[in-house]
Amino acid sequence: MTTSTDGATSTVDAVIIGAGFSGLYMLHRLRDEMGLRARVFETGDGVGGTWYWNRYPGARSDSDSYVYGFTFDRDLWESWEWSERYPESHEVRAYLEHVADRFDLTRDITFGTRVESATFDEDREVWTVTTDAGETVTATYVISAVGALSASNTPPFRGIETFAGPTFHTGEWPHGGVDFTGQHVGMIGSGASAVQATPIIAAQADELTVFQRTANYVVPANNGPVDPDVKAARLEDWAGIRERIQQSNFGFELYLQEKGAAEVSDAEREALLEDYWERGGFHIWLGAYADIFFSTEANDLVRRFLDRKIREKVHDPETAELLIPKDHPFGCKRNPLDSGYFETFNEPHVHLVDVKSNPIAEITRDGLRLADGAEYTFDTLVLATGFDAMTGPLNRIDIRGRGGEPLREKWAEGPRTYLGLMSHGYPNLFTITGPQSPSVLSNMPVSIEQHVDYIGRIIADLRARGATVIEPTKEAEDGWCAYNQEIANATLFPTANTWYMGANIPGKPRVFMPNLDFVGPYRAKCDQIAANGWEGFAIDGAAVPASEHVYTWAVAG
Questions:
Q1: How far is the C-alpha of 55 from the C-alpha of 170, rounded, in Å?
Q2: Which fold has domain 4-47+105-151+389-469?
Q3: What is the secondary structure of 423-477 as a DSSP string?
Q4: Cα–Cα dist 248/442, whole Å
Q5: Homologous superfamily assigned to 154-212+336-386
Q6: pLDDT tens, position by position, 234-281
Q7: Which pTM was predicted?
Q8: Contact 443, 251 (CB under 8 A)
Q9: 362-398 burial, b if ≥16 CB within 10 A, otherwise e?
């Protein structure tokens, strides 16, 4: 372990960027379990990562609370009790603060500090990291724990700077909250944050107008307290739950049906969908029929059920039709959970405006104007316009690898990685749940733990060998990129204009960015790569070719 400090410069074994789920566990793994000296830099003034910033009304996890946490330590598992099925943002922050306190992590976290650059020195084979506080840190390893959804996106609306009232982005919400009492509120966006915020804002505001570009399929959360007997059984079943979610498709205890939606009778399909609708959560999306991801015919069968549910909830037929998606298959866009979203549009003071057929022309001093000249006025503007997902957080840092090549330039046509973990030409740079790994198509803490453990395993092996650097070979990276797109193109995912495809960011290349191996098969693949001597990687220049199994799709049951 190398440690030294000299004024505004220091040398450590590893720099970790971000103090959310990923950064906290990575610090614990490297420092407490491996004895390395690590520094964490966090832009916020506290731990939490995405949850430090996401404090908009109604913000909560859409993963069941009992699996939305760490499972690497049984004592930690038993030390925390969630209050609801889906915890609100403040409770997730409290949990992460509990983790930080339990392992004394904050002493190695520098808060209120943004990493501006990371440059690889080929001669010394180290990284030089600079911050906006003027500090320079030299490290053998740099580990990105910036998350997939941390770079908020404000579309370049004409005139947005002219709006006279306050403007709030759901991804950068004031920590003291916002009181909408007596106000006319305009909300742009209808994704997951808008689905959660709309009922809460509507309950306060005198008038709420939601400007919707893309309708979403939204299924019930059915949130509430968890039965004490269920909680007690889960507490005792730590090992079983840990094993099952690690081997699952999505990091949940959800299992796809043996037969597809198009292979069962109408009555059988209707009964299962109705049952899953009542259960709430992701059952209909991730626990029902696998063929909805491959077959338009199968997808349409489930869509008809969901369309009917929207019409049952929304009284006005015209509003209901606007809220029914017409331009993408169900399940190929992030599926928000509903806690009164559709019913909110039955309130007389809540209005829905379609800005797909009639786009926003400009933001004005008093509101906004649409392309046909229609004007809307409001006191406060809420931007529920999402994130520059997956690549955005990394591209906002000036990362330069061999030959000084900026990562953002290498990724100009889309991310290029091996396993979503590393990129050729950027030795010892790791991306926890990076693009082209399962990440956002999974329950994130499960994928985070797997990546952190795997990075720890790689570093431990390097040090045991006396080796200095590891990076993927160009051939392995090219193969992984091609494989990633091949399996995506075998599904309906690329047919939807989603942030999975970068479609929400003007000028961003349309490339499917997650990986569809899914949690269990991806974990097995990574383990096999390690067992085969780190195939697809070069260690101190000695490469091990990637074999056929790396590019074989084997989804779990």
A1: 7
A2: FAD/NAD(P)-binding domain (3.50.50)
A3: -TT-TTEEETT-TTSSGGGS-HHHHHHHHHHHHHHHHHHHHHHT---EEE-HHHH
A4: 9
A5: FAD/NAD(P)-binding domain (3.50.50.60)
A6: 999 999 999 999 999 999 999 999 999 999 999 999 999 999 999 999
A7: 0.96
A8: yes
A9: ebbeebbbbeeeeebebbbbbbbbbbbbbbbbbbbbe
